[in-house]
Amino acid sequence: MTDQAAEITVSAQGLSRRFGAHTAVDGVSLELKRGEILGFLGPNGAGKTTTMQMLTGNLAPSSGAISICGVDLFERPVAAKARIGYLPETPPLYRELTVREYVDLAARLHRVVKSARAIAVNNALARCGLTEVAQKLIGTLSKGYQQRVGIAQAVVHRPDVVILDEPTIGLDPNQIREIRDLIRELGASHSVILSTHILPEVESVCDRVQILHHGSTVFSDSITGLKQFHGGRMVLVGLRHPPVVSELAAIDGVARAEAASDTLFRLSFADGADPTDELVQRAVKKSWGLYQLAPAQSSLEDVFVHLTQKEEQS
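RE: above sequence
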């Protein structure tokens, strides 16, 4: 095995899942390396949860292959699953247990050997900020602390891959910040797949983004690649003496124009068009005072909306 292959913790190729006549996931592939955090996104019904259930071995794909750290999930499911930690959207908590009792139970279920179990539990409690509440009943904890307990059960056996489904849903801003910090810390030593509807969370935490729509991957790239996604199709134009926005939108090849400020405008180009020359000539002819013309960086929200609404509007 090469060093490059050894760094790959998750490899999924051509995953599909059909429920009768309905195809929930259609040919999804992904690859994750150690130390990476992948933001896994899509509108409701896009196939995210189905894909994560397949990646964790909780649902068999109709077709495709999955390996975890080089271990085939279907041929050696026990060995592959031992390398995965999973937090579903609803954490599988026992409210009548104390935090320590529950994390110890998770360690037993993950087959942590008895001689190392106490250390593993203590480490998981410390990493997730739970040491001070270890003796409290889970049912008495806040939603934020319960999410921490859910993450602790997913990492107590120190898996190579941690899969988190909506880990910050229902939390207040302070709790969200704390969970984000914890996810970043996990990303230093694990591979993390993070599914969330909070788009700024992905931009602040993740290294890469994969967007699903109607069961298929419509975008997969780094955060840097995300910001350049509209390269060649969107520009920022600075004009000291700008016309009305509708005049900019009327330029041949401009699909949309919107004001970012009094003198800064974001222009989207039509597919296959590049009206840059016409824009410059018109700015000079009409003395608009062109002072900036540069490719516009896209936010995750821009890309998400563009990719998941384009098909509905076509």
